[in-house]
Design a protein that fits this description.
The chain has 78 residues and is mainly alpha-helical. Helix content is 73%, strand content 0%. The model has no long low-confidence stretch (mean pLDDT 88).
Length: 78
Amino acid sequence: MALNVEAGTEWDVTVAAFCGAVLGAVAVVVHQLYVALFVDSLIVDPFIYVMTEMAVLLPAGTMLFAGAAMIRNRVRHL
């Protein structure tokens, strides 16, 4: 019995970028839940605080996952 270990096709960079953005959004939500439940300091404007995290973590997750997919596709063709 032989086990096929070859990868089927290239990774879709768009799907990888979307997954990275979703992971970034989940990270923001989890962090905001932690802050709301366990941190005693008051935030002056929570909207700006949340939107700043979204503006940083969503593009970061997008670039990280899309970059990983691009590198994987490029290395696969070598």
